Amino acid sequence: MPTGSTPRITAGLKLSSRGQTAIANSVATGQLKDLLNALSRGPLRSAVLKRRFSVSTIELATRERLIKRVDITTKSRAGTRMEDWVKIEENLNPKETKAQLARSPRQAKLFEKLRESGPVLASKVRSHSSDSRALRELLRRGLVSVEKRKFERKTLGDAPSRDRLPKLSKEQEEAVGILTRAVKKKRSETFLLQGVTGSGKTEVYLRAIATALKDKRSALVLVPEITLTHQIVHRLRARFGDLVAVLHSGLSENERFEQWEKLKSGEVPIAVGARSALFAPLDDLGVIVIDEEHDPAYKNSEGFRYYAHDIASSRARADDCPIILGSATPALETRYSAEGGKITRLKLPFRIGKRPMPSVRFIDLTKEQASAPRGEKLILSPPLLKALRSVLDEGGQAILFLNRRGFATQISCFLCGHIERCQNCDISLVYHSTNHSLRCHYCDYKTTPPEICRGCGGGQGSLLGTGTERVEEAVRGQFPKARIGRLDRDTAARKGVTQTILDNLGEHRLDVLIGTQMVAKGHDFPGVRLVGVIHADHALHFPDFRAAERCFQLLTQVAGRAGRGKEPGQVLIQTYNPEHYAMKPALSHDYETFYQQEIVARKELLYPPFCVLTQIGFSSSNLKEVEKAAEHVARLCRQNASHEIAVLGPAPAPIARLRGKHRMRILIKAPDHQDLLALVQAIKIADAQIPKTTRITYEFNPIDML
Ligand code: ADP
Ligand code: ZN
Q: Best substitution site from 167, 203, 223 to test ligand 1's pocket, by max atoms within 8 Å of Cβ?
């Protein structure tokens, strides 16, 4: 149910029949009398009464059975709004009407206006006092009437013009053939549609959806972020007209309710939205599409933890429909399932119309930094600066992308970009300034930061901290006239700002956009000729076993942002590691080469898909308490685990403190779910021994490893 749409039930009190008799006979006095009188007009909420009357009065009345408990239902906040519309009555005799209104010029004028305009909102007429009076008279005479109409919000904006069916490419034809058969035959099978950006994946979705609609079934389309709903909704409406509803948290309560109701009533068969749209009230699903399926946003890591793919699978099984997972860079687990034959892989290897992929080039920061003035840290290297200058001179647009998330706690070398890693886990170590140590957040390995870089032997290790603001500053310094926008977690926190900035870029009110990974996702900006990545290495050194995968995905996605228009696009990536296996294949948009190497690494270190990973999280405002709880549970884990299960930790979470709470975690690697479930059952019993002030969370296949 959408929020605000369900009635709320609160505790209340009402008069009993004894109470009514007591009032009638005036037996009560003082406060008790006032209380009974207050309730004589109907039940009231307990909270309200407690503010007005003493506890003893309420207790006395309850004891004497003068009042009793009752549930009070408050109306839901969101709902369908009805509006009054005024229209003139049909089948009126013009002559008679004219005669009737002959001596009332105001009424005659209003009547004439309504006849010309057709039905009008009553509130509009009533806003003029003279018209309001005239309307009352016209209603009394039976010349006009008021009808209730459902108020429709303009949630989706104006409808786009209808598109024309393109002739499918050979590869699209093949994919569409297989998918439409699965839709028609009602097979709850999962397909991976693997295709580079611009290869026509969306067109394939549209065809599968059309087949579902033809069979009078519904369709669910998921995108990773609210800002991406806009484009897909546009494509869907251009193909299917008004048969589309959106569901996401960016809508107002009323808008969401209205969209939800359109789906629930069956009026509209296609639901589009971010993760939570999985719960759209659709009957008889014909197909589920998960676009950009590799995106970590498909995991809900707070509250009710779920992975969109899992919920989609159960819906698909319930309704007998296929799932299409679309991506240029599939999640490793998804791609691996295709090898085992658990899911079917469909390939779209080329861009539509043989449009070239943008050219991608690395800028080796080790070399550039060597020729920079001593001590100066390069943000924009000379080659990137040159490219930016020529694009701006020619009136083109550029995106500068900072490949990092919120916190800079790895120690990396200025000169070679080397980062210290854990010897046990091959995960980058995180710097703790409080005790000047480097720690592994998987196994809790500790070491002191090295004085001399272990990568190149020279220089001094130093904290890396290039935020989006610093990049903006650098660009402003070089291009004072350029119109610069910035998009990161800070700016995005303000409602509507993200869309405005993206619109500004789309309509060329911005020359340069600087941003974090939010910029990278599926947006389509034809004017963007240059994409620059400031520091690709950040993603690589994230304390997460998926760091290499994320790095490759991000670079490939970013590269896909350039050259979507007629002009060829250029992508420049600044990095210390141009030879890294997660970097090099990004040059040629070569997912398969990356995949073949990464899957070997996962197998060696026993990370998913070769194990089921479970994260047990502990958080409390009391550090001692959280440590004790984590150690207690870790001990239990080790006692109960079979020899095939590895228990790592407890260790502080990479974000060791969040909103005042200390956070610890244990990671468990198990060969399969069965072993793991038995173990978790055993440890859950320990919950009772742990103080309530420590929160414990169990999460299978965690994606947010922070
Ligand atoms: P993707 O979703 O893989 O990025 P799209 O489906 O958006 O790719 O296709 C890229 C562009 O090519 C879009 O503008 C789309 O309208 C167009 N397109 C897709 N399929 C065809 C086709 N068979 N013939 C012509 N144009 C097509
Ligand atoms: Zn480790």
A: 203
CATH class of 359-408+465-598: alpha beta
Sketch the domain layout of the chain as residue ranges: 8-74, 82-150, 170-353, 359-408+465-598, 612-700
pLDDT in the model for residue 234: 93
Q: What is the mean pLDDT of residues 17-38?
A: 90
Ligand nearest to the CA of 667: 2
* CATH code matching the domain that covers 170-353, chosen among 3.40.50.1970, 3.90.1150.10, 2.40.160.20, 3.40.50.300: 3.40.50.300
Please indicate whether residue 522, judged by its CB atom, sits closer than 6 Å to ligand 1: no
Q: Is the CB of 352 under 6 A from ligand 1?
A: yes
Mean pLDDT of 112-134: 85
Nearest atom within ligand 1 for CA of residue 328: 3
Does 168 sit in the ligand 1 pocket, CB within 6 Å?
Answer: yes
DSSP designation for 526: T
CATH fold group of domain 612-700: Alpha-Beta Plaits (3.30.70)
- For residues 548 and 339, give the distance between their C-alpha atoms in angstroms, rounded to a whole number: 20
Q: How many CB atoms lie within 10 A of CB 146?
A: 13
Residue 519: what pLDDT?
66
- Where is 43: in which H helix or E strand? none
First-to-last CA distance in the chain?
A: 30
Query: Which of ligand 1's atoms lies nearest the C-alpha of 172?
Result: 23
Residue nearest to atom 15 of ligand 1 (CA): 200
Phi/psi at 565 (5° precision): -95, -155
Give the per-residue pLDDT at 294: 94
Is residue 166 lining ligand 1, measured as CB closer than 6 Å? yes
**364: burial class by Cβ within 10 Å (0-12, 13-18, 19+)?**
middle
Distance from the CA of 532 to the center of ligand 1, in angstroms?
25
C-alpha of residue 169 to centroid of ligand 1, in Å: 10
On whether the CB atoms of residues 43 and 13 are closer than 8 A, the answer is yes
Of 77-91, 234-248, 396-410, 573-587, where does mean pLDDT reach its minimum? 396-410
Is the CB of 197 within 6 Å of ligand 1? yes
Mutational pocket test of ligand 1: of 202, 233, 235, the residue with most ligand atoms within 8 Å of the beta carbon: 202
When the pLDDT of each residue in the chain is averaged and rounded to a whole number, the result is: 85
All residues at 6 or more sequence positions from 338 whose CB lies less than 8 Å from its CB, including other chains = 192, 330, 344, 345
